[in-house]
Amino acid sequence: MKKNLLLTAFFAMLLSFVSQAQDINILLQKAKAKIETVKDYQAQGRMKTNVAFLKVPVATVSVFYKKPNRLKVKSEKGISFIPKGAVSINMSGILGNINFTVLDAGTDKINGTVVRIAKLLPTDDNSDIVLSTLYIDEASSLILKAKTTTRENGTYELEMTYGKYAAYSLPDKIIFSFNTKDYKLPKGVTFDFDDGVAPPAADKSKNKKGRAEITFSSYVINKGVADALFN
Amino acid sequence: MWNLLQIELYKISRRSRTYIAFAAITAIVLIFQLAFKADGTAYLDFMSQDVMDTFQFDKSKAINGYFMCYIILNTLLVQVPILIALVAGDAISGEANMGTLRLILTKPVSRTQLILVKFFASVIFTIMLLLWMAVTALFFSMLIFGVDDMLIFRSKGDVSQILQITKDDVLWRYLCAFLYATVALTVIASLALLLSVFAENSIGPIIATVCIVIVCTIISNINVPIVDKYAKPYLFTSYLVGWKGFFYIASTEDGETIKGSMENWPAVRNSLLTLLGYIAVFLSAAIISFRKKDILS
User: Fold this and answer.
1) Does A201 touch chain B (CB under 8 A)?
2) Which domain holds residue B146?
3) pLDDT tens across B148-205, in order?
4) Burial of residue B205 (number of CB atoms within 10 Å: 0-12, 13-18, 19+)
5) d(CA A165, CA A157)
6) How distant, in Å, are the alpha carbons of A100, A110, B195 from that of A42?
7) Which of B155, B247, B265, B274 is the best mutation test for A, with the most CBs of A within 10 A?
8) Which residue from B12, B76, B96, B234 lies 20 to 30 Å from B166 (Cα-Cα)?
């Protein structure tokens, strides 16, 4: 009798685990399907960059996207420092191009919203992406946060806030965090003015993290984007 | 006084050495412009090598007229004191060498007036030289390279920074920088004039001025704490590059630059006042020395 009870409990647990694994796959497919409704888009936004060694104004940028994974961030006027990993600003960059194994990593909360955590392990050993962790809002099938670890460029983190364009899974605001290297000017190339104020003590950990925040004002979706814009 | 100044300016304009300075500046500016037109991105690659790993930016936009002028001024304002010394160092000693000093002083002109006239003539020469620099380094560069946002590569202690100034926020900074440079170079002119009082030929004061500027510049940039603390604040060469302060734009805690701002205006203002103090000291010393001097030539 006791043996039967233990066996039943074991199978119940196994069944629950399997069904949960299926759930996360279904949820991921739903999120992916939503993303795939967008063939191309053109968006206008304002980018604010926060990196220890960069003192730059807020830039007006245009973002162009075309399936399968062509993305270009262009500054409307002036010079803009665009983070190189900005290509992963579009989730199809993560979901669309690679085969991966999905692991259910439970739930978490982002700004009060309960999210499911999916860990994506690429099946291709040579893929630049080592691991992606997605935080998906189950109710809306929207990815609210993504962490991507790459071989070459460290870890990127994306936080997305949705509004008017949530139906297309396009965020109104993206916060993009990335690793930066220390910036050192070659010695002796500048005769700088010493104003007598000591520079603030460098916070080593802070210096290694950069952040770019893009607030989108408008999207033009599925109206065609010229290939020349990506050159 | 005005007639004397006109005569002095006429004398400066008739000397061929006056035009050496203008020719040297033109040559240096042209070489810079040609080099950057041909391969300016290599310079940007060198300056931003660590940044390029993380960021991409349009380097062709970054090499523009404003950026070029800053690079040229950065190099030239170290050399221009030598060119100023060529004229100011000759002011009194040149007359002594030619034997015309006694002749001038037989006229109803006070020694103080004569020194002041020589000083103002040197200042006018300095202004003309800086105007020429503004025309060649700034306006010619704007014509050749166009205008866009300006990038400043800066070292502050162990910290390196890249500052970006929007193109509509640059010209006033250049105007202030050139005005500051006028004051800074006037210090050199007054020093050369002071040394000129003690010499019977032009070579001595010119070389002495150049040597003082070189030695003090090296000490100002030596970056040894004890020198920084006890010597640097008292050397006028520490303040010559204060014009750069107009380009050090202030930013918010998030690193967003604030249009129309300066990071440390009090430091620039104090540097400017220090330089004016040096001018007053050198000029007063020149007047006092000249009034007491036995004119034998």
Assistant:
1) no
2) 2-292
3) 999 998 887 778 889 999 999 999 999 999 999 999 999 999 999 999 999 888 889 9
4) buried
5) 21
6) 28, 28, 68
7) B155
8) B76
Q: Which helix (H) or strand (E) covers residue A146, if one does? A: strand A142-150
Q: Which amino acid is at A144?
A: L
Across chain B, where does the E strand assignment appear? Answer: 55-56, 150-156, 159-165
Using a 10 angstrom Cβ sphere, with 0-12 exposed, 13-18 middle and 19 or more buried, the burial of residue B152 is buried
Ramachandran region of residue A141, left (φ > 0), alpha (ψ -120 to 50) or beta? left
* Nearest C-alpha neighbor of B122 from the set B159, B91, B151: B91
Distance CA A135, CA A199 (A): 39
Give chain A positions within 8 Å (CB) of B162.
53-56, 183
| CATH classification for the domain delimited by A2-230, as one of 2.30.280, 3.90.550, 2.60.40, 2.50.20 | 2.50.20
**Structural domain includes residue B297:** no
Query: Six-digit token pair at A221?
Result: 């979706």
Q: Is residue B203 part of a domain?
A: yes
All structural domains of chain A with their residue ranges: 2-230
Q: Does A204 touch chain B (CB under 8 A)?
A: no
CA distance linking residue A38 with residue A92, whole number of Å? 10
For residue B225, the model assigns a pLDDT of 82
Interchain pair B249, A194: CB under 8 A:
no
Cβ distance of A78 and B148 shorter than 8 Å: yes
Which pair of structure tokens corresponds to residue A105? 């990593």
